[in-house]
Structure formats: structure tokens, C-alpha cells
Model the fold of this input.
Amino acid sequence: MPSDKKIPAIFFRSASGDEPVREWLKALDKTARQAIGEDIAYVQYKWPIGKPRVDHLRGSVWEVRSKIGNRIARVLFAVEQSEMILLHAFVKKTQQTNPADIELAIKRLKEWKNGQSN
Done:
């Protein structure tokens, strides 16, 4: 059942301090950023939810599905310790999500978990 409470969204931060999803969002135009931000906020308030806004990919990795103009954007995330960790983001070029994008999100989630235990 969806919650009325907001789960906080946090940006994955690499060991070098990079925040790839934040940097990707900043590179988009304002309209695209706003649309994706609204979709992320919707998920924060309605989690757990499913299609069409969210889809499960593999393991703990899910995707927020956003339409930005005639393009399709995806923000890959996991919910851990009651937080929505934004792991990877991209504009889709094909119908299927590239397995390398999912693998990168899984790798970043492992990195995040390792950083949490330090």
C-alpha cells in the first residue's frame, strides 16, 4: 500500500565525490529536469508503486520512467534503509534497457552499501 510519507531521495556519490545522476540532471534543459523531478517526487510519496511510472529491473534496482518531449528518460534507483538512492540515469535510445546500464546501477549500489558500513 502506498505511503503518505515521503522517502528521502539521495544521490549516489562515488568515492571521488562525483554525483553522476545530479550531474546528468544539471546537463538537461529546465523542462526535462522539472518533468523528471516531478516523477521522482511522485515515487517518493507513493512508494511502493509499479507501472507505468516505475518498473522493477533486477534485484534491488528499479527505474523511474519519465517522458521528456519525444524522448524517454530513466532514473535507476534502489530503496535501502528507507532512502531512495538515485544510482544512474540516461535517455533511452532503444526499447530495451541496456544491460550495461543495469549493471552500472548494481555496481553503484554495492559501492553505496560498502560506504555505509564504513
Summary: The CA atoms of residues 73 and 91 lie 4 Å apart. The chain has three helices and five strands.
